[in-house]
Amino acid sequence: MTTSNILEKIKQYNTIIIHRHVRPDPDAYGSQNGLAEILKASFPDKTIYVVGEEEASLDFLATMDDIDDHTYKNALVIVCDTANQERISDQRYLQGKELIKIDHHPVVDAYGDIQWVEENASSVSEMIYQFYLEQKNNGLQMTDRAALLLYSGIVADTGRFLYPSTSERTFQYASDLVAYDFDRSAIYEEMYKTNLNIARLKGYILQILRFPPLLV
Q: What are the strands, taking DSSP E only, across the chain?
């Protein structure tokens, strides 16, 4: 499989529906919506949808589309950042005509007519930027909004570039993306809010938690 195969398949369809996993994180949102933004800019005559459960803490990145079952007829479905089918948010993904899987997790479920899996990638957001780089001479276009989304996904899935999955390529792609016009500080602020809320919840749980007395 090459990114050329994916682009050629995309060119064959007028409707493209992009899914990701349940209980989404910033990489799921970033890769899903970053890809959608690239495709919208590159193919303005195509209809691109993003679907799945909403996650309030990620509303600063994107919100989902509400589509009916009929929309899937003759549509290409792309699933981002999801290793197995049970975790795909909105199980209507099977109603599309063809299916593409783009993921960076170990293969546990080889679903899809086309599968692009790179276990060495830090994130699927990194893979989507790679897709753009390899196919920009064939019509793909990057936007400031797509850059924001992909950068957010990379930052989150690498733990702000601290996790072992962070590579030289990761840093290079992040460097490319920050050259676009978006507010990095706003991204970090929103991510900090989420982490702070989680910390407060953990603190509350520890406060109310009661253990039975030890038996002697």
A: 15-19, 47-50, 76-80, 98-103, 114-117
Query: pLDDT of 132-169, one tens digit each?
Result: 999 999 999 999 999 999 999 999 999 999 999 999 99
Residue 84: count of CB within 10 angstroms of its CB: 14
- Residues in Cβ contact with 58 at an 8 Å cutoff, skipping those fewer than 6 apart: 24, 25, 26, 29
Side-chain-facing half-sphere of 109: CA atoms under 13 Å = 15
pLDDT of residue 194: 58
Domains belonging to the chain, first-starting first, are 3-182 (3.90.1640.10)
Rounded to the nearest integer, the mean pLDDT of the chain is 93
First CA to last CA distance, the chain: 63
Contacts of residue 114, defined as CB under 8 A and 6 or more positions apart, other chains included, come to 1, 5, 6, 9, 98, 99, 100, 101
The residues, ordered by sequence, that sit 6+ positions from 124 with a Cβ below 8 Å of its Cβ are 27, 28, 30, 31, 80, 81, 102, 103, 104, 153
